[in-house]
């Protein structure tokens, strides 16, 4: 714990963003309240993404009322893997990742065997709002289970790693790869016990990791190094994240993406209040970067121009990438 505070203090000198600044100067300033439902409800996010031609895990069905729970069998059909999640959930809570069927029951991605009744009960809890922001009544969505690309096999334990990129007014400012652990039950959420690993914006090479507020370089379950891993199609992920600004209109978001073995990059969800631990994984504060983007926006405004997602990605990669500049 002491090590964590020491790290946080050291980062403070380098422009670390705290929760008050994030809320006042970014979330409140750049995120219009009326647009929140687009990101706070995963069903609406999906519809928006599809309309914009952005790939997402396919939705098999929606259950909105207790009566509709009877439709579950029909929605699942003959499939043996699928995911059930609260439309307005957060932090990985209430998500059920079913990987297989087993003797009339189901096997979750972390190996737990559950009955059909247990799944129905879980859906019922979702509907009552047990996992939703503010405890409001919610809907359950049933979707395609992402099968992670082979690249993650050595550095991930069960479940699906995701790539989180913080995007300010369409400019990606910081990225992190999140790796599920035995502890996180196949989910890539840090507070469930997943690892966060910083990513170089210019190259897509992983940096060091943070786990339960400690700095780490090896995955605790697989013991393989988490740094120095080249993420595939990195510029594609960067451009995808940048284009989520046009998709939702919110100026300060965390974009969560996954790399499916067959379907390639997919958007999992968008967050209007992205967490701040990404700074520890990157050993870098957000403020210097967000200020640089704000200065860029001023400059462009004065010149009366705007940039495309590709141009924005190029700007941040040159500005914040770790690639050493070649002299001469
Ligand atoms: N369709 C899916 N297939 C496989 N794993 C998933 C799927 N959806 C979510 N997960 C796992 O659960 C985690 C949290 O999902 P997410 O949709 O981001 O919800 P939350 O808002 O709770 O973070 C993901 O990072 C991933 O590890
Ligand atoms: Mg998430």
TrEMBL record:
One of its GO terms (cellular component) is ribosome. The keyword Plastid does not apply. Residues 46-297 form the ATP-grasp domain. InterPro entries: ATP-grasp, ATP_grasp_subdomain_1, RimK-rel_E_lig, RimK-rel_E_lig_ATP-grasp. Pfam families: ATPgrasp_ST. GO terms for biological process: SOS response. Gene3D superfamilies: ATP-grasp fold, A domain, ATP-grasp fold, B domain. One of its GO terms (molecular function) is metal ion binding. Keywords: ATP-binding, Ligase, Manganese, Nucleotide-binding, Ribonucleoprotein, Ribosomal protein. NCBIfam families: rimK_rel_E_lig (TIGR02291). This is Alpha-L-glutamate ligase-related protein. The lineage of its organism: Bacteria, Pseudomonadati, Pseudomonadota, Gammaproteobacteria, Pseudomonadales. The gene is rimK_2.
